[in-house]
Every structure is written in C-alpha cells, then in structure tokens.
C-alpha cells in the first residue's frame, strides 16, 4: 500500500514534547531509530512552562551522554545537601556525604529548551485532534497539523508521553488498566521571584501554618512554594500576603537569617496527587512519564521518573529493532513500575511528614515532628532519605 502525501510512516510515534517525549526522541535518534514527535502546544508555550527544578545524578548523566550537557553544566547549581526546618530550627541532610551523589538545580523548562534546540528531527507543534488507533496491530496516529491539514502517521510503536491530561492513556480500552490514586487535601502555590536565594541549599519547612519550600533557579532567581488548599484562589494572594506567609513559615531562631524578596515573575497553584496506572503498556502503545504516573512534588521526582521510563523504553526498543528480541518490551511495565512505586512511596512519605493537616490535628503533628527529629538525628534514617532523594541508579 502506498502512502498518500498526507500519510507518513515512522518507527516510533511519540505523543507529547515534554521531558519524556523529547528525551525518548534523542535516545532513539542516538540508536538509529526513527521517530516523529507530535505536540499539542506551541514551542514557546512548552519552553515557558515553569515546573520543578531538581535533576538526579542519573538524569544529568543521561542528558550529558546525549550531548545535551553544555549549557546544563555551565549554568546548573550543584547541591550537596538540603535543609529540613521545623520548630524554627534548620537541620541539614548532607546528601552527597550520605548517598554518594549530588543533585543538580536546573529548571525543567531549561531542560526542555535544550532538548528542542538540539533536535533536528520531525517535531510538530500545535497539532490538534490527536487520535490513536489499531494499538494491538498496526498503530496509527491521526491528527490535524498546525496548518489545519489532516494527517496520518503509521508507526511500529507509539510512545504515549503526553502527560496526565493526554489522549494516550485514554485510548486504552476500559478494563485494561488498574488505577491507583491518592488525592491530598493540599496544593502548592508556587512563585518565581527576582530575588537572590536566601540559603545556599533547598529548605523544606514544616510549620503549624503549613509547609513551605525555598528553592532557586540561579544566583538571582528564587523559586518558593506555600502549602495551600486545593481550591485556593490566586486572587486572594497579593504579593505582600505571599511574602509575609513565606517569612512566617520559613522563620527560624537564627536572628541572622532573613528571606530576600523581590518582584514576582510567575505564580500558579498546582494540586497534589499520587497516581499510577498498571500496566504501562497496551499492545504497541507504551505510556511514559506523567501519562502513566504522577507524584506529589515534595520529592522533586516527576521529571526524573519520566526520564527513567524512557531510558527503559529506548533500551527495549533498541534490542527489539536489532534482533527482534521482545523481552525488554514485554518487561517494560514491570521494570518501570518498580521504580515508580519506590518513588511514589518516597514522595508520599515526604509529603506526609512535611504537610500539616488542615485541622492541625495534634496526633498527626506529633507524628510528623517525631519523624522529622528521627531523620535529622539518626544517620541511618538520614541516609535512607538521602539515597531516595538523590535517586537510585538508572536501570
Ligand atoms: N497531543 C499531543 N501532545 C499532547 C497532548 C495531545 N493530545 N496532550 C498533552 N500533550 C503534551 C503536553 O502539551 C505536554 O507538552 O504532552 C506533553 C507532556 O509533557 P509533561 O506534562 O511535561 O509530561 P512528561 O513529559 O511526562 O514530564 C514529566 O515531570 O516534573 C514533572 O509533571 C512534571 O512535566 C513534568 C513531568
Ligand atoms: C523546584 O525547585 O521547583 C522544586 C524543588 C524541590 C521540590 C519541588 C520543586 O521538591
């Protein structure tokens, strides 16, 4: 059967140009496997989307091995510890000393910019009406391109990298997937501010007013978060209220410490949830990243988990194309879900330890403080936190 002008063929059709889709594209390209990436949003939208900013050692190594490390290594901030702040005292967890690996601070959207800039293969932005079919036989993606022209993409395999709200997971027939989900009674209000970081490292703060996080992007830009209600209205948070709440929650007994403020460049509220589907595969559709799982941001794992998934997928596809060996593809879901559940547990645990419940239940609060004292006083407990935080080696 010949293809018409509006039909194309590729080996791997990738839905979504977030970290999962773009890293997969680069991995496949490096192994001589063809792919086409389809993205619903514009390039500028994807490049401006502010998300988390902690990269595990494994993520940095993988990006570097793909030739994507130049700006990353120039501009990143390398951190060797984090602070846990509670009862107005800061306690440092020396990550590198305990777990042997450092973390990198570099915004997710900067990673996305680097991935797009270095990509010279097919990547179509602003596509609409994306629909997946024939997933167990001859996978096909139909879509309308940016010029409004209906297109058909025939693939050997489809990678569903289109995030939590994408179409890939929804294309799987009812009854195939088991969904595991937990919604939390809180959300994070995040701001990006033109202000120098007030600490050299990240500060995770537990206070009776709620959780707060001090993070950063550069020597002049701070990233800060406040625990709020899931239905919080941003309109109720003028700049001064945000700063005074941050000051109150990040306050410590050390009189020399203060929080630097400055113009707020961006603000948003993000709900917190834990979500996993199992399996992460149906026929020749493989889900990766947020399309298959969401973690609450307290462990800073979302991007790293997406990268770990596509590494497993790229390795499996490489073996399959090289020798027809489908063992890796058959084991894809199981291999990914092992890491996914470890990270789910860690993210849930960090979230539970650091976020007071809305009624400030005294029993919950006593457990949280006990756990915080334990992880900051026992080397064994701190090491467990550290090895999860820096991330286990990639598969
Ligand atoms: N067709 C094409 N693209 C789509 C569609 C669709 N129907 N639906 C969604 N997309 C695109 C989104 O616009 C987005 O660019 O898929 C992309 C998914 O990217 P992310 O949401 O960033 O998800 P992922 O690549 O899995 O990245 C992992 O880690 O830090 C966390 O949630 C954070 O985005 C982060 C994630
Ligand atoms: C961030 O810098 O945006 C960030 C850091 C740590 C987290 C979550 C987000 O746990």
Automatic annotation (TrEMBL):
Keywords attached to this entry: FAD, Flavoprotein, Monooxygenase, Oxidoreductase
Occurrences of domain FAD-binding (ranges): 9-346
Record-linked Pfam families: FAD_binding_3 (PF01494)
SUPFAM superfamilies: FAD-linked reductases, C-terminal domain, FAD/NAD(P)-binding domain
Transmembrane segments: none
GO molecular function: FAD binding; oxidoreductase activity, acting on paired donors, with incorporation or reduction of molecular oxygen, NAD(P)H as one donor, and incorporation of one atom of oxygen
Keyword check for DNA repair: no
InterPro entries tied to this protein: FAD-bd, FAD/NAD-bd_sf, RIFMO-like
Name of the protein in its database record: p-hydroxybenzoate 3-monooxygenase
């Amino acid at each position: 059967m010949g293809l018409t002008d509006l039909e194309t063929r590729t080996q791997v059709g990738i839905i979504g140009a977030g970290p999962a889709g773009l890293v997969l594209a680069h991995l496949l390209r490096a192994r001589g496997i063809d792919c086409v990436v389809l993205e619903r949003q514009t390039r500028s939208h994807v490049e401006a989307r502010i998300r988390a900013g902690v990269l595990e050692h494994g993520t940095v190594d993988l990006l570097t091995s793909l030739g994507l490390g130049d700006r990353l290594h120039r501009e990143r901030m390398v951190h060797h510890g984090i602070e846990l702040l509670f009862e107005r005292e800061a306690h440092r967890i020396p990550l590198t000393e305990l777990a042997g690996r450092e973390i990198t601070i570099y915004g997710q959207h900067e990673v996305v910019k680097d991935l797009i800039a270095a990509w010279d293969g097919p990547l179509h932005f602003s596509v609409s009406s994306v629909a997946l079919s024939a997933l167990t036989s001859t996978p096909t993606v139909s879509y309308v391109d940016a010029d409004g022209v209906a297109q058909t993409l025939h693939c050997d395999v489809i990678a569903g990298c289109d995030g939590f709200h994408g179409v890939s997971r929804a294309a799987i027939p009812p009854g195939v997937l088991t969904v595991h989900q937990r919604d939390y009674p809180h959300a994070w209000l995040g701001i990006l501010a033109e202000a120098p970081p007030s600490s050299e490292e990240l500060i995770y703060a537990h206070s009776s007013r709620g959780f707060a996080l001090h993070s950063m992007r550069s020597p002049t830009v701070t990233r800060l978060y406040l625990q709020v209600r899931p239905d919080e209205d941003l309109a109720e948070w003028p700049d001064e209220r945000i700063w005074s709440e941050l000051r109150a929650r990040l306050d410590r007994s050390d009189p020399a410490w203060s929080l630097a403020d400055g113009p707020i460049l961006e603000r948003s509220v993000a709900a917190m949830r834990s979500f996993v589907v199992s399996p992460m595969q149906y026929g020749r559709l493989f889900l990766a990243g947020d399309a298959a799982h969401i973690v609450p941001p307290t462990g800073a794992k979302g991007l790293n988990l997406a990268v770990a998934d596509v590494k497993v997928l790229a390795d499996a596809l490489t073996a399959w194309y090289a020798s027809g060996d489908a063992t890796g593809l058959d084991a894809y879901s199981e291999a990914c879900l092992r890491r996914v559940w470890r990270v789910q547990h860690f993210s849930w645990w960090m979230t539970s330890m650091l976020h007071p419940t809305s009624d400030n239940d005294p029993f919950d609060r006593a457990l949280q403080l006990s756990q915080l004292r334990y992880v900051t006083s026992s080397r064994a407990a701190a090491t467990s936190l550290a090895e999860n935080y820096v991330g286990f080696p990639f598969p």
